[in-house]
Write a structure and sequence with these properties.
Shape: globular
Radius of gyration: 16 Å
Strand content: 5-15%
Order of helices and strands: HHHEHHEEHH
Protein name: Helix-turn-helix domain-containing protein
Number of domains: 1
Number of helices: 7
Strand order of the largest sheet: 1-3-2
Organism: Clostridium aestuarii
Keywords: DNA-binding, Transcription, Transcription regulation
Structural class: mainly alpha
Distance between the termini: 30 Å
Helix content: 40-55%
CATH class: Mainly Alpha
CATH superfamily: Winged helix-like DNA-binding domain superfamily/Winged helix DNA-binding domain
Length: 127
């Protein structure tokens, strides 16, 4: 958040991209939209992300107030991540982006590794 406060933004999109930009942040938020996940569960869902990158992205999302981190005093430590109340406000935006991607893939005949039933549920915001 400090980095965000040090900068003067010229438009809302610029700020939004600083908060949500990058390869992983929106995907992390997408996976947290319906349930709390442990670090290892998130890592398994994000093909290609390193442990270091996932840690960094989660810290940034937590710092921006979009993700909650809960640590359980166990050995080994158990850490869970969930969307904060404010983080939940981005979910409709994520659905819009997801739908746009599905439409884009259809328009330009691109391969999307999803079953038609899943696409239908997403388009109706059931997932």
């Amino acid at each position: 958040m400090t980095k965000l406060k040090e900068k003067t933004y010229n438009c809302g999109m610029e700020l939004t991209m600083d908060v949500l930009g990058g390869k992983w942040k929106t995907v992390i938020l997408w996976h947290l939209r319906k349930k709390t996940l442990r670090f290892s569960q998130l890592k398994r869902r994000l093909d290609g992300i390193t442990q270091k990158m996932l840690t960094q992205q989660l810290r940034e999302l937590e710092h921006c107030g979009l993700v909650n981190r809960k640590i359980y005093p166990e050995v080994p430590p158990k850490v869970e991540y969930s969307l904060s109340n404010y983080g939940k406000s981005v979910v409709p935006v994520l659905y819009s982006i997801y739908k746009w991607g599905i439409n884009y893939s259809k328009t330009f005949d691109l391969s999307l590794n999803l079953e038609d039933s899943i696409i239908e549920k997403i388009m109706n915001e059931e997932i």
